[in-house]
Amino acid sequence: MQQVHVNTLSIDSDYELVSRIRLGDDDAVSAMYRKYARYIAAIAYRLMGNDADLDDIVQDTFVTAVKCIGSVRDATVLKTWLATIAVRSTSRYAAARRRQLRFVEKKMFEVHGQDFAAPTHGDRMEAHSLIGQIPYKYRAPWILCKVLEMNLEETSKLCDCSVATSKRRIARAEKLIRRIRDEH
Description:
This protein has 184 residues and is mainly alpha-helical. It has 8 helices and 2 strands.
């Protein structure tokens, strides 16, 4: 059994962790995080296949766990309960990423005047490849304006540049997208 030390307090069991968290003990929350964060991160990494959202998933898992700690009936299964939360959190992040990528793909194909009816796996890979090849200073305002449909003022503020600069960068991104597509 893994022993977790919090300041001078020693928490030997998951039962003790759960009991203390229920009482609002922040040290116990920290102890639970230190004890299980790597385990949760490993689960999320295996499910996602990358570490793009890993920190967010781990944080979301523990925030949810603390909020719902009252629902734990058997503290001996804390590790399994956390894993279940992690799997659900990872699933939500993966679904959100898929929705976001489909939206980006749609906008990419709209820029090129193509119909977005049913892109193939190759189309998706091409869209992701194109996005990745555009330098960030052009990609960021293009995604904010064209994909997330922010107005130029919002885009400019987020990119910390003038409206005119945002317009130029968006136009440059579209030109780069066309050039990269034409080369392939």
